[in-house]
Amino acid sequence: MFNELKEIICAYVDINPEEITEDSRFIEDLGFTSYDFMSMVGELEDKYDIEVVEREVIQVKTVGDAVNYIQSLQE
User: Fold this and answer.
1) Predicted local distance difference test score (pLDDT) of residue 21
2) Domain of 46: which CATH number?
3) Residue 15 domain boundaries
4) Phi, psi for 9 (deg, rounded to 5)
5) How many domains are there within the chain?
6) Main-chain dihedrals φ then ψ at residue 33, nearest 5 degrees
7) Dihedral angle at the C-alpha atoms of 17, 23, 26, 28, nearest 10 degrees?
8) Whole-model pTM?
C-alpha cells in the first residue's frame, strides 16, 4: 500500500517518489495544500472503498499515518 500511496502522492505534488518516506509530512515536507490533501483523500476513498471521517483524517500528518489509517478502515 505504501508504494501505491507514493504514486498517488506524485499525482498531486511534483516530487520524486524515492524522496517519499513513511515519515514524510504531507504539508511541511511534500508541499501539499489543504485542497490537494482533501482531493487526494477523495481519491483514496474511491480507490480503497473506504469512508474517511473528517475529524479523524485531520490527525493524519505523515504518509505512514495515512497508510495506518487506510488499513484501519479496511479492517
Assistant:
1) 97
2) 1.10.1200.10
3) 2-74
4) -55, -40
5) 1
6) -95, 165
7) -110
8) 0.91
Is residue 20 within 8 A of residue 8, CB to CB? The reply is: no
Determine phi and psi for 71, rounding to 5 degrees. Answer: -60, -35
Cell numbers found for residue 75 = 479492517
Residue 9 burial by Cβ neighbours in a 10 Å radius (0-12, 13-18, 19+):
buried
pLDDT band at residue 75 under the 50/70/90 scheme:
confident
Q: What is the pLDDT of residues 6-42, one digit of tens each?
A: 999 999 999 999 999 999 999 999 999 999 999 999 9
Q: 56: left (phi > 0), else alpha (psi -120 to 50), else beta?
A: alpha
Site of grid cell 480503497: 48
